[in-house]
Amino acid sequence: MGAIALTTIWWTVGFNFLLYLAALQAIPEQLYEAASLDGANAWQKLTGITIPMLRRTTGLVVVLQLLASLKVFDRSTS
Description:
By secondary structure, this protein is mostly helical.
């Protein structure tokens, strides 16, 4: 089962990359600017702004990966 999951991740990594790229570009630059003015360092910006703003995209990627893995698994057992 692990090999199927890894193969599916490799197979769909390009689409997932595009989803994350779009999500990163949708984060308003003003949030990072405000954090800089408040004295936040790069780690605080990552954990306080970037990761929480990518939560919905991460959920979507997990669901899509699960569905793709199940689809591949279903084909391999038939």
